[in-house]
What does this fold into?
Amino acid sequence: MRNLGFLWAAAILWSPHVLAQDELPIRSGSVQVTRATVLRSQPGNASPTIGQLSEGATLRWLEGQQMGAFLRVVGGKGPQGWVHADDIRVLSQPPAGAPPVEAVTSPCANSLAACPANGCAPAGSAHALFNQVKRQQPQGASAVALGFADLASLQSQADNLVGQAGDLSAQQRALLVSLTVAGGKVAEGSLVRLTGFIAQGLAPHPNTGESVNCRRTGPENNDFHISVAENASETEFDGIVVEMVPQNRPKQWTIEKLLSARKQKRRVLIFGKLFYDNAHLVNADPAHSLSGQPKRFSLWEVHPITRFFVCTKPNNACSANNLPDWTPLEKY
It folds into this structure.
C-alpha cells in the first residue's frame, strides 16, 4: 500500500456553464483527514484496503457521494476509494445543481483541415498538449500486445506517476515511459494491439464538438468513441475506450459496421497508439457511477486507432498472432 499523504490541497473549481466532453469538470468538494486511516475499495469496514491516508491529507470528495458512514474520495494521484466519515472533516461541499453536460459551442476553425494540432486550446497550455498528443500517430514498427490485465496495471502505474483528472505538463507526460506490461515495456505513444469485443451499454458513436477537433460538428469531424471489453457480455464498466479520429479515417470505417460487429458479438483486433486520458476519472463502479465520466476501468486508450479488424470465422476462432485470420473493417 502506498502513502497518499501529499495530496491536493483544494477542491477542483467548477462553474455552472456546460462544456464539451473532453473538458467536463469533476464536481467535487474537499475533505481533510483528521487522523491516519485507510482508503478502501468499497464503502464498508470489511472492504479491501487500497491505500494509507496520512493525517492532514486533503482529498477531493467526488460528487458528494456517501454510502452510510463512507465518503468517496480521490487524492492528487489517485486511486479512488472510500474513507470513513469519522476520520475526516468536510472542508467544502460539492457544487449544487445538475451535472454539466456537453455544450453547443461555436467552432474555432472553418474546417477540420484548418484545425491546428492544439485544437481550440491556447497554444502552450496543458490542454493544447493534451490535444496534440491525442492526434499524434503511434511510435514503433512492431505493436506490443496488451491484455486487459495490462490495462489495469497501467492505470495503477499512472496513478503513482501522474494521477487522474488533472492537467499534465510536458514534464509530467514524459513520466509515462518504461511502463511494465506482460509483453515488456511500453510508453504513452507506443504502438499497441488489443483484442476484445465491443462492449454492451453505450453504443459506438461520434463525439460532439471536442476541442481537439476545433469544436466542429458532424460525425465526419469527430472521433468515434468505442468501448471495448474482454468478453462479449461485459459492459463499458469492464472495458476501456478506443477512438477513431476523423483525420484520414477510412470512409469504410462506419458506426453501422461497429454496431453490426457488436450485435453479432464478433471479436475485434485493434492497432493504434497508447494514450493516457488524464482529463477524466476512472469510472468502473456501476453502483456508484460518476456523472459525465466515460464508463471504464482504466484511463488508458488506444487513440488514435490505426488499424481495425473483425473476426468473421465461426466461434471467433481468430488468432491475434495471425493477421490473415481477420477481416479489415474496410471489407467487413
